[in-house]
Amino acid sequence: MDLQAIRADFPILADERYVYFDNAATSQRPRQVLEAIDNFYRTTNANPLRGLYEWSIGATEAYEKARSRVARFLNAERDEEIIFTRNATESLNLVAYTWAMANVNEGDEIVISIMEHHSNILPWQMVAKKKGAVLKFLEYDEKFNFSDEELKKITDKTKLVAMTYVSNVLGVTNPVKKVAELAHKVGAVMVVDGAQSTPHKKVDVQDLDADFYAFSGHKMLGPMGIGALYGKRELLDAMPPFLTGGEMIETVTREGATYAELPHKFEAGTVNAGDAVGLAAAIDYLEDIGFDFIVNQENRLSKLCLEAMRDLPYITLYGPLETGRHSGIVTFNIEGCHPHDVSSVLDSEHICIRAGHHCAQPLLQYIGVNATARASMYFYNTDEEVERFVESLKKVRGWLGFE
Ligand code: 7TS
Fold this sequence. Notes:
It contains 14 helices and 15 strands. A seven-stranded mixed beta sheet has the order 2-8-7-6-5-3-4, sandwiched between helices. The chain has a four-stranded antiparallel beta sheet with strand order 11-12-15-14, covered by helices on one side. A two-stranded parallel sheet has the order 1-13. The two termini are 42 Å apart. Ligand 7TS binds next to helix 4.
């Protein structure tokens, strides 16, 4: 695979002054995705799912083709198990407001992990509060694993288990398939937050036996404003709608309404067809590159980065020692320097990283820090960029007056 040819597909990467290491926040987009969106609006645009004329029918077809593409990508059994949303956050809220509000009751328990992004914490806190349920946290051990003892928090009282497949701070992959099995043994549903896994690994929702799987398009080369929720059909069918209004109905009278079949029951209002088409193009691109290449490249870059950083005595690294467990994510602090200052110094060298709590405050409290810096690499990043990043890191303490 020719990395320079891959980079040439990404217009923004042509400006080589910049090193973009904030891919866990959002990825960059190749021209194939930009062109697919552009082409939709130039040639196919009309309001999908309602018009009876050629353009509207074309827009509907493009939208439904994109849904099929997502279904195939995740190995969903049926297209109607894919609900388009704005992002992973909306997908998780959909499950909370519909399935959970209808099925979680007083005294029931919801189990999540301490590693969750706020988007996979707050919806469950809301449900627990409204329903008088108990929210429990699974804590990981010194090797970043959940022990069998810890997993015993999943009990007969558990109604729902939610866990991120890949952590946006530690980069580790969690055993969601095993946890789904434990959840199912006690009759609970398993919600997987796939925001950080879908960009980096082949996902098979049937193999994982996830009941729900949420992800965002923008972290995997797609546009912002489109994501999806996979849900098993029997569950989605039995759930009440989330948002109500146009397009999600069958009939409406003065007194009430009956709802449309799946997936439209969960897609109220004019849908985001242009970005769904962009997401399908992103999936085509990722599959053309292949997840073997993506995983190898991320692991190689993580290794290079971690090995260089380990030699710097003033750096604390968070996450496993094994370089192959990082999914391109390297989280760290520099002794005496606030991560915001680290990020600002790096910015002056055009190096883009994230600093702060990464929307995972309970995790940072568990680690015992208020904030960290985070470099997150994707398959289009290069060894030279890692070297530039590490060289700049070596200057940070000097610039901040420590040396
Ligand atoms: N879940 C995880 C594990 C995430 O990393 C993120 C975003 C979300 C959910 C929410 O995704 P959204 O597209 O709905 O916003 N994570 C990050 C991050 O690490 N830096 O910026 C956003």
